[in-house]
Amino acid sequence: MVLTTTIPDCDEQLNSTFASRYVRTPVPKYKMPANPIPKEAAYQIINDELMLDGTPRLNLASFVTTWMEPECEKLMMASMNKNYVDMDEYPVTTELQNRCVNMIARLFNAPVGETDTAVGVGTVGSSEAIMLAGLAFKRKWQSKRKLEGKPYDKPNIVTGANVQVCWEKFARYFEVELKEVKLSEGYYVMDPVKAVEMVDENTICVAAILGSTLNGEFENVKLLNELLTEKNKETGWDTPIHVDAASGGFVAPFIYPNLEWDFRLPLVKSINASGHKYGLVYPGVGWVVWRTKEDLPDDLVFHINYLGSDQPTFTLNFSKGSSQIIAQYYQFVRLGFEGYKNVMENCLENARALKEGIEKTGLFNIVSKDEGVPLVAFSLKDSSKYDVFEISGSLRRFGWIVPAYTMPPDAQHIAVLRVVIREDFSRALAERLISDIVKVMKEMETHPIRVSTKTAHVTATVDETQDGEDGGKKNIKKSARETPEEIATYWRQLAARKKTGVC
Ligand SMILES: Cc1ncc(COP(=O)(O)O)c(C=O)c1O
Description:
Elements: E1 13-14, E2 27-28, H1 39-50, H2 70-78, H3 91-107, E3 119-123, H4 126-148, E4 156-160, H5 165-173, E5 177-181, H6 192-198, E6 203-209, H7 221-235, E7 241-244, H8 252-255, E8 268-274, E9 286-290, E10 302-304, E11 311-313, H9 323-360, E12 364-366, E13 375-380, H10 388-395, E14 404-406, E15 415-420, H11 427-446, H12 453-461, E16 465-467, E17 473-475, H13 484-499
The structure holds pyridoxal-5'-phosphate (PLP).
């Protein structure tokens, strides 16, 4: 969510071409209108303005689902008015969430007996799931330290510097220090050896990522489990592991069933996954599951009874929609294990085709791995003439949204482009993207669009003349690129670049 700070002019009006058939007076943009307008006009005005948003299916920046079957959309529309928290009123919806939790826990090999119930909860996304998992670790660690009569005011979590921003949020909001293992050129995930070295008595958990946001790579959770088991034995601590499987949680079980990253590893106590990523549901739904009941401290669970019967809840929000939970259940029932496997295999094949096409240009290094979530991350072999941000900007002309970003410390000098392959990204689209990348690269090679920071600065601060080497004045011949408009664009892009986040 963007926090609104200031608005340019609170009296600004919104005019709409077609809506003028219904209303002649413009609608204020930042003040609530004094009077109602016809529903057709409201629809038209908003619909017209929304046309300027990007096309979700061409948004290759996001892991989040952009296509679902109409039958599922029908179910979602029919449940838009159900508040998920009213469990007594909507017991079937609650039951569907419980079924989803049980299916996911078993998919992740939780030690749940045939007749046992798994422990977990549906959330708005992986961010909320991670907050809940983090709180459970913090509370467990604090309780243990209190019992031992030891200080419990400096909890920390060990992660790679490649963690998604939600971990930084958790750390700041809930006062836990984030100890990040630095990356290096060519190694863009957490090194388990370095991570375990950073663990101390205040470490509430080590968070490993199954599918790094930056290059899709799976971290080596098995090795982490081995090293941490040894360290726990030596020190007498029992530092656990959380796996952030936001994107990989619904990929690995289907494609790499023998990869041990989940509850098969004894130190893995909780796992989160985004239902709205490769869980194949529209935003926002996520899941967090715990290994056993004992891994979720009782005192974090609230019991409410005013909506009917006793209802245990462990979420950050109270009310939320039911549609996504129902949609998740639809996908599980509709696709089953084989259906998910087909979708994921198809995504991986398309990722491979795209990777080969990009490699063929001879201009890029691939920084994603063959084993990982289906995406292609690539950096320029030579960025002396133009950079990935300019390529990203040029691809927008063809409708593609391909993010460019720099890696976290200590690999911040590496800048990459990333294309996420979702279910609705077909082979035809992959081929089209390759041909557009080739076009853009040809343009870049022949007409690099770079406006150097130096040029922009000089042009912005001097007039038409400047001191010549001989002390006299010489005219500066400005190209079209050096006009004030170009300079403004350059700085706007630079500012936007700094703000670019990837999700
Ligand atoms: C590894 C990882 N963790 C957490 C998140 C946050 O997930 P969500 O958008 O479901 O809150 C993301 C988002 O991309 C992610 O890639």
